[in-house]
Amino acid sequence: MLMGKFSLRGVDLPGLTSNEAKVYLALFGVGEPSTVRPVVELSGLAPTTVRDNLAILLSKGLVSRRRLKRGGVYTPSDPAKLLRFCQSKLQALTEGIERLKVVLKVRGSV
Fold first, then answer.
1. CA separation (Å) from 42 to 30, 68, 78?
2. In this structure, are 44 and 59 located in the same domain?
3. What pLDDT, on the 0 to 100 scale, is given for residue 110?
4. pLDDT tens digits, 17-64
5. How many Å apart are CA 28 and CA 47, to the nearest integer?
6. Computed over its alpha carbons, how large is the radius of gyration of the chain?
7. 47: nearest Cα among 57, 36, 55, 58
8. What is the count of structural domains for the chain?
9. Residue 27: CB atoms within 10 Å
């Protein structure tokens, strides 16, 4: 059941592309485990785009899927999991910057 139309325009979730964020938030907007169609309706994205982004969100662990004969039913993970995902990305970025500083210092650029 759709919980009513809401705007996903300008929504930005760190660590997710615009379309990933729209799909993730649309799953919450549906209000229950969902097939692709209600997510398409709520997000305004094309069915193929929704399916592709659901696959990406699955690989990131931000969505779970229960298989059906045709397709599946998708459920968004707890938003705390998104926070942990973003924190791990931030940690990796911080470590990469520190390694880059060391390389640049060795070369005499810093």
1. 8, 22, 20
2. yes
3. 55
4. 889 999 999 998 998 899 999 999 999 999 999 999 999 999 999 999
5. 17
6. 18
7. 36
8. 2
9. 25
Report residue 27 as tokens: 């799953």
Residues 42 and 85 both lie in one domain: no
pLDDT at 105: 85
Question: Residue 7: in which H helix or E strand, if any?
Answer: none
Q: What residue numbers bound the domain in which 35 lies? A: 1-77
Which tokens is 36 given? 């692709």
Measured between alpha carbons, how far is 31 from 93 in angstroms, rounded to an integer? 34
Q: Are 67 and 40 in contact (CB under 8 A)?
A: no
Answer yes or no: is pLDDT of 99 > 60: yes
52, 99: one domain: no
Residues 5 and 57 in one domain: yes
- Bridge partners (DSSP) listed for residue 65: 74
Residues 6+ apart with CB under 8 A from 2: 29, 30, 31, 38, 41, 42
Q: Are 71 and 35 in contact (CB under 8 A)?
A: yes
Q: Are 70 and 83 found together in one domain?
A: no
